[in-house]
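pinned: reference chain
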Amino acid sequence: MPKFTINIPTSIQAVLLSEANRTGGTVSSVIIAALSEHFDTPVHTLFQISTSGALVAGVFSGAVSVQSLLRHGDFGLGTFANLDGEMVVLDGHVFQIQGTGKVSEAPATAEVPFAVLTRFLPEVDQGVDAIADLADLQKHCDALRNSGNIFYAFRLDGTFKSVRTRAVRPPEEGTRLVDAAKAQSEFRFTDVAGTLVGLWSPGFSSAFSVSGYHFHFISEDRLHGGHLLNCESGPLRLRMEPLTDFHLALPETEAFLKADLSKNTADELAYAESAH
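pinned: its structure tokens
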């Protein structure tokens, strides 16, 4: 995170210290919150387009463009209209990993039915030891979470000994996600440098999001990627941001407005997110 050195009046310093003591935060967090409000730029905010239940029900039509999506963040993941591959949002760029394995930067006009992103401002930046598998990765991330009731964004950079990913292919219109997932493509990469973009969502969010961990991978050369199924790595740089504000934007498309989203889709979503 960038650092600035400024001169402030003693009276403002006293107010900052008092507010930090009242809230149990730091002077930096008070200043960031004040600047965020003044410039109307959200921080520690997770912005989501549509719901996971809509995806499960087969609502894959585009709700917003990539250009519109990037107004709300520079880091995250999702998918594309007609379920045409996996999305990685990294450093303000949106990448599309298609079922063929092709990776490309999505055009500004590409349409998005579902995405979750934030303006990444990590509060933790540290190294982690070698990671044996996905469960071990989650264990390292768990050690940094101090609550099960807020959201978290994770970024891990380094060289991976092995990575296993998948990418969905466009299904026929009206196909439920659980059926579309049966035709997904799986990929394996070895000795590849890259980045994991991850989000952790609390259990109560299962009604509208993917609860627990959700990671997408993209290689440093932007040639490989997908939804993470498993990985093994050497030491990695891990950055984490707690997210305490959540905004959900619901589509106004005909498909979304007429879909039956009243059912519990947790089991179907878990199947679609896992390896087959």
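why pinned: The longest helix spans residues 10-23. The domain at 52-273 is CATH 3.30.1330.80 (60s Ribosomal Protein L30; Chain: A;).
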